[in-house]
Write a structure and sequence with these properties.
By secondary structure, the protein is an alpha+beta fold. The protein is built from 12 helices and 10 strands. The strands form 3 sheets. It has a 4-stranded mixed beta sheet with strand order 1-4-5-8. The protein has a 4-stranded antiparallel beta sheet with strand order 2-3-7-6, with no helix packed on it. A two-stranded antiparallel ribbon has the order 9-10. Strand 9 and strand 10 form a beta hairpin. The chain is globular and about 80 Å long. The protein binds flavin-adenine dinucleotide (FAD). Flavin-adenine dinucleotide binds at residues 124-127, 132-133, 157-159, 208, 212, 214, 363, 366-370, 372-373, 376, 389.
Length: 389
């Protein structure tokens, strides 16, 4: 393809600027980090300094006050350029819980510092080893004692915990058998990990198939000031759910970016690689998987756009956000498969970056929500079929 695979007309300038920033972080940079499972500190600093990670923070709190589609354009471009937003994407949406449900004092205390980069809010502690997707069964318990909460329990897959100052934590504050609905009795806290690390908080990294800086996190009588409770005690599950549509649409944007990267890479390679005296891209068997994945990506992209428009208009967008996440993840996976296959043996060589991106994009079939759970959402909440779990 002679034209770059940019199909959305919106936020053209942002895309152009992000593209220039990403050019400073080529494949070699990511490859070296991948080898040692290192954190892309310089890349995250560059995004922070350029104001991209505070895109969704309103101007009155020091951010750029942009809409979700602009944030999506930033992350999509990061991925389309071969970089990886997973090192910092959560900061864009986790702060939404503080913005929507925090007190004015909390917003003043945290948001401007997050916007400037003085404070990092990269860690999101929801998933636990025993409860998995069944979030309301989580066991981490925060017991009120005077002006503080004492937290005991464990989280898993808490990404970026070692590279964050703050963690947004979901914990039980009332036992499950003492609440009317299982979604009650959960609360959300801002944990200052600079104060608690080594004092009740232990972080243990987990080595995974891709470089994602995920961790296990243990709480042993960790103390959190009561002032760090977000909103009302017992309503935390709703606050977390509230932010999930934004999360899904942003992750979907990353998948669209990945699909564009894989497709551009595939097209360039198959036009250039000659076998049997002609470009391999002249064979329909090579062309079709690439073309199919491109069509899937374009369809998913429309849904991402529709979801962002509804989100920005303050309308319910659960249907679009869930479907966009699933279809964009499917499109990026199809594009990854086509790319690896069309590269033949070279697809497995690290220097082509294909195998790295292939490992990275596979995650989005499982996290932050797995495909089955998206399908269950559509079946139950969109189509009205009985709840299956
Ligand atoms: C690299 C990585 C980073 C992550 N980062 C974070 C993070 O920062 N913070 C955080 O809180 N979490 C994080 N997660 C956790 C992630 O959100 C979960 O892994 C994901 O939601 C799936 O939960 P689980 O792993 O417990 O799988 P399980 O809930 O055990 O599910 C396993 C499989 O069974 C299927 N399944 C389960 N129940 C049903 C059902 N009722 N019907 C049909 N299928 C079902 C699922 O679809 C899945 O495929 C991360 C995970 C990974 C791998």
């Amino acid at each position: 393809m002679d034209q770059p695979l940019i199909t959305q007309e919106r936020h053209v300038e942002i895309r152009e600027e992000v593209r220039k920033l990403c050019a400073r972080f080529p494949g070699e940079y990511w490859r070296k980090l991948d080898e040692v499972r290192g954190y892309p500190t310089e890349f995250v600093r560059a995004l922070t300094e350029a104001g991209y990670l505070s895109a969704l923070i309103p101007e009155e709190y020091g951010g750029s006050g942009l809409g979700l589609s602009a944030a999506g354009a930033i992350l999509e471009t990061v991925h389309a350029e071969g970089c990886n937003g997973a090192a910092c994407h959560a900061q864009m949406y986790i702060m939404g819980t503080i913005l929507r449900h925090g007190s004015e004092q909390q917003k003043q205390a945290y948001l401007p510092k997050i916007a400037s980069g003085e404070l990092r809010l990269q860690a999101f502690g929801v998933t636990e080893p025993t409860s998995g997707t069944d979030t309301t069964s989580l066991r981490t318990f925060a017991r009120r004692e005077g002006d503080r909460y004492v937290v005991n329990g464990q989280k898993i897959w808490t990404s970026r915990a070692e590279h964050s100052d703050l963690m947004l934590l979901l914990a039980r504050t009332t036992a499950r058998n003492e609440v009317r609905r299982k979604t009650d009795g959960l609360s959300t806290f801002i944990v200052d990990m600079r104060e608690t690390l080594g004092r009740g908080l232990t972080i243990r990294p987990i080595r995974t198939m891709m470089n994602h800086n995920s961790c296990e996190v243990f709480f042993d009588n960790m103390q959190v000031p009561a002032a760090n409770l977000v909103g009302e005690e017992g309503r935390g599950f709703r606050y977390i759910l509230d932010g999930m549509n934004a999360e899904r649409l942003l992750i979907a944007s990353e998948c669209i970016g990945d699909a564009k990267w894989f497709t551009a890479k595939s097209v360039a390679y198959v036009k250039d690689r000659h076998v049997f005296g002609r470009p391999i891209g002249q064979n329909q068997g090579v062309q079709f998987p690439i073309a199919r994945a491109y069509a899937q990506m374009r369809a998913a992209e429309l849904l991402v756009r529709a979801g962002c428009e509804k989100f920005e208009a303050g309308q319910p967008c659960g249907e679009e956000a869930n479907m966009a996440k699933m279809l964009a993840a499917d499109a990026s996976w199809a594009a990854a498969e086509a790319c690896l296959q069309s590269h033949g043996g070279f697809g497995f060589a690290e220097e082509y970056d294909v195998e790295r991106k292939y490992r990275e994009t596979r995650l989005y079939q499982v996290a932050p929500i797995s495909t089955n759970l998206v399908l269950s959402y559509i079946a139950e909440h969109v189509l009205g079929m009985p709840r299956s779990y």
